[in-house]
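Journal club prep — side note

Before the paper discussion, L.F. wants everyone to see what a predicted structure for a comparable chain looks like in token form. Sequence:
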Amino acid sequence: MTFFVRKAIGIVPMVLVLVTVVFFLLRLVPGGPAIAVLGDRATPDSIAAFEARWGLDRPLLVQYADYMAGLARLDFGRSFIDGSSVRESLARAVPHSILLMLAATAVSLVLGITVGVLAALRRGTWTDGASRAFALFGFSIPDFYLGVVLILLFSLQLGWLPMRGAGDWDDTADLALRLIMPALALGLPTAAVVMRIARASMLEVLPSDYLRTARAKGLSPRVVSFKHALRNALIPVVSVVGLNMGLILGNTIVLEIVFSRPGIGRLLIGSIFNRDFAVLQSTLVVYAVCIALINLLTDLAYGVVNPAIRYE
């Protein structure tokens, strides 16, 4: 427990450093939110009034202190564009992005581990060859391109799945239907990585002495392979999945644009184009916290997969 408390506490300085760097770097970017909101023909008086309204005319260190004080109260400020609460915008967007990340991770785990284990158990057969072809396909195709292909096939040609939006939380069926294509687009490329690691790990574990002993005791091949071998083979897979979850979360930015999903990726892109400092800073903070939590959960998963692992 002490290990995880230390890891959780270590998230705080990392987030503070990120917030500080982003805050000051944004102020060095040419142009500013006043020009982005008011346009290139804005008069000096209108620019001054805009900056005074949002406190952008104050000393930089004062702005930084005010922002950090608000962040400590979970007050992320208000959007420069429409004055809406950033916290409320994040509260609406974050669940959709987290749901997409979890669905894509589930696709990569189920498909990658299943194909990888079967390929290892049937090494040298057509199953193994097909798994390598699948891995080559996953490594080669970008997720945003795969998303467009899925839209063309399942939405425009077959009309099976809706192509836009994320659905209503009150309508579970619609929510699931709109999640299928983006989850597949994100999960399939990652499944190729999981498959290769699972296959290599199983091939390394299968000749082990303890498995020969299990076979000699008369245990069935299914029990030996899926209960004893797979559990130890999953340890490298856990590491890869932890890393890939961070990549999947980052890739949701592009897929949310492709599928018009109201996630934090769309907030981030919109805030970049509009120089909306409050939204941009807060979105990056959320991303950093999510990735740090993913790493923490990955460490916890090691102990679940292999109880012999103990943290000091």
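L.F.'s comment for the group: The CA atoms of residues 280 and 307 lie 41 Å apart. Keep this in mind when we get to the figures.
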